[in-house]
Inverse folding.
């Protein structure tokens, strides 16, 4: 599969890669907010059981100089953690009791 | 005992003797009565709903107090600079490190015709980088990092222009523990060190400089800056508002469990609270969210602390057991939260009207060395925003409730002593300013 986005060991997650391999928190936040809960849950259910393996995979590589497939896997892990709040805690995409408030992340380390 | 969740307290003699807590209070019996000048009566929040008071506050407090505008890590080399908008003060400043390494601050305004000197994208956009000189985009005047004008385009066209006297307008600028402060007063009444006093000053040796990995957040909130700050001066609100933060199970959501203000201290206009709580890294997995267990991180930060050495100056001043967080409120608008697990957070609140403010938050970590550490930091940063949004949302409602005028004065309990002290301090500064204005106009 020449157009694979993720390392071959994680080929089963390819269907999620185009949507959730996002480099910044503002992009990931926007994606969470516009996704129906069923989709967030499906992504979480598909990825969470393999998350520890994915962390171990990336952990063997230098953070500052990752091959692009591993860096995308790391982005997918970032998305998983953001989605985990919707699935594990709030049971909805939005934060409970946040009203119309918004907090923007304006600076973050990369990758 | 640390690897078990403490049992829920049952009502009984012991609980009534000390309704909240395992920790010693002062001899007077309460923290509040230990400071008789605070009183124990109802407190007015008129200071948080009055447009006139907001105007006074700007002059009496924000144009007189030392204000934190950044960290030395933002000025890594000689020639580094950054600009900073001071919301609500109609002021943009340049902070620079000159060729001798001295830190300076200037109004971000060209001496020629008042143009905003440095910006990116739009004149409202902040800018940072490395420079040998600052060049005005309008008529090309140039300034050295020391603020002296070095070039006037077609200087011979001007009348009586003395180029060697032209400078950017300087601001008083001092640093402490890597924090950069400015003071907008013509002559500050105290040096920064005098102003910070012994309690905050004791943190001077804390290794802030090792925590160079930063996540920054910004919010525009529909509440008075004090109403927002008040929420971070007490942990009384945590179990009811942030129930989910404590954990997924009933046992984990035991209100006695995670946060307890164990020690309170006041020093001049500044104040602090130390919390105690069971550390999550000792909890059984069934009382954790799966992602907490996966990342070994959460609302009190990454579980695996970096090695910062054995002594951490200034933290946990009362040496309480199971230390959690030291929360220093540096008057007027800076909060420094130091976590037991070796990271820290700063909040800044900038009033923009009587019922709006800009909130800035920065999370600082020792840089991640690998994916596991990166994700522990990321999960802590995600967690900060999730629960911070609950505060932002709720405090909009507090502002509306205060403005409704149904009540004029409000009861504060002993755990809310810092709220009491904060509003009193703000009132004292505004009163002092008003007295000076009256005296000056009588002359």
């Amino acid at each position: 599969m020449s157009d694979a986005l993720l390392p071959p060991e994680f080929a089963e997650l390819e269907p999620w890669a185009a949507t959730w391999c996002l480099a910044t928190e503002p992009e990931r936040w926007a994606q969470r907010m516009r996704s129906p809960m069923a989709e967030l849950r499906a992504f979480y259910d598909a990825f969470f059981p393999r998350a520890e393996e994915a962390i171990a995979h990336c952990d063997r590589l230098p953070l500052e100089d990752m091959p692009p497939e591993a860096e995308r896997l790391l982005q997918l892990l970032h998305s998983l953690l953001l989605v985990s709040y919707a699935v594990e805690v709030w049971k909805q995409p939005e934060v409970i009791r946040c009203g119309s408030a918004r907090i923007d992340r304006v600076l973050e380390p990369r990758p | 005992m640390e690897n078990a969740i403490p049992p829920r307290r049952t009502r009984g003699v012991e609980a009534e003797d000390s309704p909240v807590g395992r920790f010693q209070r002062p001899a007077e019996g309460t923290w509040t009565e230990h400071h008789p000048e605070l009183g124990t009566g109802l407190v007015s929040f008129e200071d948080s709903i009055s447009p006139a008071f907001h105007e006074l506050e700007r002059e009496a407090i924000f144009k007189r107090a030392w204000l934190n505008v950044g960290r030395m890590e933002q000025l890594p080399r000689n020639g580094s600079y950054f600009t900073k908008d001071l919301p609500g003060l109609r002021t943009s400043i340049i902070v620079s490190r000159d060729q001798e390494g001295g830190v300076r601050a200037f109004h971000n305004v060209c001496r020629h015709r008042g143009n905003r000197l440095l910006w990116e994208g739009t004149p409202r956009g902040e800018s940072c980088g490395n420079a040998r000189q600052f060049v005005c985009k309008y008529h090309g005047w140039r300034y050295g990092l020391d603020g002296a004008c070095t070039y006037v385009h077609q200087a011979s066209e001007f009348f009586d222009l003395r180029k060697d006297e032209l400078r950017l307008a300087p601001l008083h600028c001092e640093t402490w523990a890597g924090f950069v402060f400015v003071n907008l007063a013509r002559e500050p009444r105290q040096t920064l060190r005098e102003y910070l006093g012994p309690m905050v000053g004791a943190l001077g040796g804390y290794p802030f400089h090792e925590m160079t990995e930063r996540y920054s957040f910004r919010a525009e909130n529909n509440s008075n800056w004090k109403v927002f700050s008040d929420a971070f001066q007490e942990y009384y609100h945590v179990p009811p508002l942030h129930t989910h933060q404590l954990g997924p199970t009933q046992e984990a959501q035991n209100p006695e469990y995670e946060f307890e203000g164990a020690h309170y201290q006041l020093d001049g206009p500044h104040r602090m609270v130390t919390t105690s709580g069971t550390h999550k890294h000792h909890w059984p997995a069934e009382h954790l969210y799966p992602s907490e267990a996966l990342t070994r991180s959460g609302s009190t930060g990454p579980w695996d602390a970096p090695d910062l050495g054995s002594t951490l100056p200034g933290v946990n001043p009362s040496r309480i057991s199971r230390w959690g967080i030291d929360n220093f409120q540096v008057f007027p608008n800076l909060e420094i939260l130091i976590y037991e697990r070796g990271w820290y957070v700063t909040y800044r609140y900038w009033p923009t009207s009587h019922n709006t403010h800009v909130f800035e938050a920065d999370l600082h970590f020792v840089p991640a060395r690998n994916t596991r550490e990166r994700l522990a930091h990321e999960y802590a940063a995600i967690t900060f925003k999730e629960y911070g949004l609950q505060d932002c949302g709720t405090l909009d409602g507090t502002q509306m409730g205060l403005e409704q005028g149904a009540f004029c004065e409000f009861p504060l309990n002993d755990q809310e002593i810092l709220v009491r002290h904060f509003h009193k301090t703000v009132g004292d500064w505004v009163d002092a300013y008003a007295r000076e204005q009256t005296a000056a106009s009588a002359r």
Observations:
- Strands of chain A lie at 104-107.
